[in-house]
Each structure stands twice: as structure tokens, then as C-alpha cells.
Amino acid sequence: MLKHELRKKYKNLRAGISPTKASDLSLALANSSLQIPIWDFFYYHIFLSIEDKNEVDTLPLITLLQGKDKNIVIPKVVGSNSLENYLLTDTTAFKKSAWGVPEPVEGIEVPENKIDVVFVPLLAFDEAGNRVGYGKGFYDGFLGKCPKETRKIGLSFFAAEPEPITDVHANDVKLDYCITPEKVYAF
Questions:
Q1: Which domain covers residue 47, as residue numbers?
Q2: What's the CA gap between 22 and 58, in Å, rounded?
Q3: Which residues sit in the known binding site?
Q4: InterPro entries this protein is in (predicted)?
């Protein structure tokens, strides 16, 4: 399937999930993350959810990371399609961006070469580990700057799309894993 078709399909599917169900599914995703061999690393990049888009709530996963005393890195959009990454601390202040994304106002910047694990937002993914985001290229650009060893983990309420994504580009970065409420996919 084409990315634009998948974006439309999965935006509609996500819109049909109630807030209570989304909360339950997000907690299940956080618990499922414990199955992946990623817990010996230090820097974990994680997106903050956009409430209006009914994204996976990453707060349970952030709480899990904090409980394991991990360094949590939060993105901030800069320029037309770049991300800067800031260490989450007790004093981190947030402001919503034009897209409704909570972003750190300022803080300790963490370079891409230090990031060990990235939890990647997505709308859909296929069984080969290709993902469909919102189409702006923020994460593909960011992941391209990370070390090749960085673990890339998608978070999705839905199973892998059975049909392959047919319009994958050379700069699209594949996932290593994707966590759903029912299954952890390894690619």
C-alpha cells in the first residue's frame, strides 16, 4: 500500500479508540517493552504524545524508564525538519508547538551520537519494519544522524500492515522493533 493511503486508514482507526481504551493499550505497550533486550543502555529518546491525534501515550513508558534510572531524551523541532534533543530533568519546562507537541523550552542538549534507543512515533508499519509517519521527515532525518547501532522501536496500537509499504524511499529508516498491545515485532 502507499503511505498516503495508510496515513488516512490509520488516522481513522486511531480516531475510533476511546480515551480509556487508548490509556489501557498504552500501558500494555509499556509493559511489553520489557520483552526487548534494551535495558542495559543509557540514553533513551522518546516522543511526547499529541493528545489531539490520539497517539500512544508515552507517559507509562517514561515512568518505566525513570524507574530504571535511565537518561530520557525529549525532542524539539527546529527549522523546517530537524530535531534537537534535550535531557528530561525535574526542572524541564514544556511548551506546545504549533502541531500540539509538548516540547522542552530549553535544557541540556544531548547529541545524536549518545542516543542508544529511540522510541519512534508512527501511524502504521509493515512486516519488514518500514514505518509511515506524518510525512514531514523529522524522524528519518534524526535517525539518519544516530549511530547505526541505535535501536529504533516503533509504538503502535495496531498490528503490522500485512501488505508491504510500496513507496519506501532511500532515506526512510527501518525499525528494529515495533511494540503493539498484542505482539512485539522484531525486524
A1: 3-186
A2: 11
A3: 3-7, 50, 55, 131-139
A4: FTHF_cligase, FTHF_cligase-like_sf, NagB/RpiA_transferase-like
The pTM is what? 0.93
Residue 160 has pLDDT above 80, yes or no: yes
As annotated, the binding site for ATP includes 3-7, 131-139
Specify which residues 87 forms β-bridges with.
73
Which CATH number is 121's domain given?
A: 3.40.50.10420
Structural domain count of the chain: 1
Kindly indicate the confidence band of residue 183, based on its pLDDT and cuts at 50, 70 and 90. very high
Provide the pairing of β-strand 124-125 with 131-132.
antiparallel
Cα–Cα distance, 51 to 53 (Å, whole number)? 5
Indicate whether 23 pLDDT > 80: yes
Instruction: At 93, list the grid cell.
Output: 519546562
